Amino acid sequence: MKGNARYPVLMSIFICGLIAAFFLSFLIGRYPIAPKTVTDIALSRLLHMEPYWESTLEKVVLQVRLPRILLAILVGGSLSMAGASYQTLFKNPMVSPDILGVSAGAGFGAAFAMLQNSSWAKIQLFALAGGLAAVGLAYLVASLSGRRQDLTILILGGVVTSSLFQSLLSVIKTLADTDSQLPSITFWLMGSLGKGNNQDVLVMLPAVVVSISILFLFRNRIDALSAGEDEALSMGVNVPLVKLVVIICSTLLTVVSVSICGIIGWVGMVVPHIARALTGASYGRLSSLSFLIGALFLLIIDNIIRGIPGVELPLGVMTALIGTPVFAVMLARVKKGW
Questions:
Q1: Which of 18, 131, 269, 276 could form a disulfide with 106 if both were Cys (CB 3.0 to 4.6 A apart)?
Q2: How confident is the model at residue 338, as a pLDDT?
Q3: Is the model's pTM score more than 0.90?
Q4: pLDDT band at 207 (very low <50, low <70, confident <90, very high)
């Protein structure tokens, strides 16, 4: 079955899988809750049902598990789509969403806020500002060379920026209190959905919807650009505008994810390869399938973490443990031709 014919089938399979995983995720956790109770709690406010369950169970379902499940879907999908967008733009299968220094900048911003003993909301705000500042600095470095539209120069700007913010992060770690602040910084850098709440979902959802919608509208021009700048120009594509749109939208998808959940690696690099192997390199199909696979992948990983009794492993560690062998397999694929 060719890519065009296979695409609707794949989309249907992963949508059904994501829906099934969404509902099953409510049953996983340290507090065992019967499926009927979960359903009744979810419908209670719509049907004005008289509660027969403890108030603690309602809090667990609606204020702990629901936002965590939604954040896993949004973060996994956002990082995967950002990775697919960057890989298509830079025509490089090894590119990840933090290629322009987003993760390093966000890590520095969050660590700086923790050094001031700031609230969780302020930590997220500083992480967001740090990630955006890192990408802006990478773009500035590329502009200073006079070749800011050269993607290779932009990548080098990202490498320089990432190195700078990693160094600043090391300084913050050195200054941090080893009993309280340093463990918090280290745990945040490893990524977690444990502190997510409904407010985080409401903050993240508009940014994700807007970014995805814009990228979808530009999908044909992104496809043209992936064939080469000269070919895109001959087709009337505004190449600088398309580059800027991809960078801004992908950066926004990445930075809102990192600011809320910390640094979660490998998802944005590995998942687009899986989607590309299934549906081909057409950006419209690749990006949408990447979003679904990434959302399902991260939700399953987080369910595994929540299902382990007694300890909660960092999300970034688990994605790396699974992403590393997949990446090793992908290296052989890249060697044959991407």
A1: 131
A2: 46
A3: yes
A4: very high
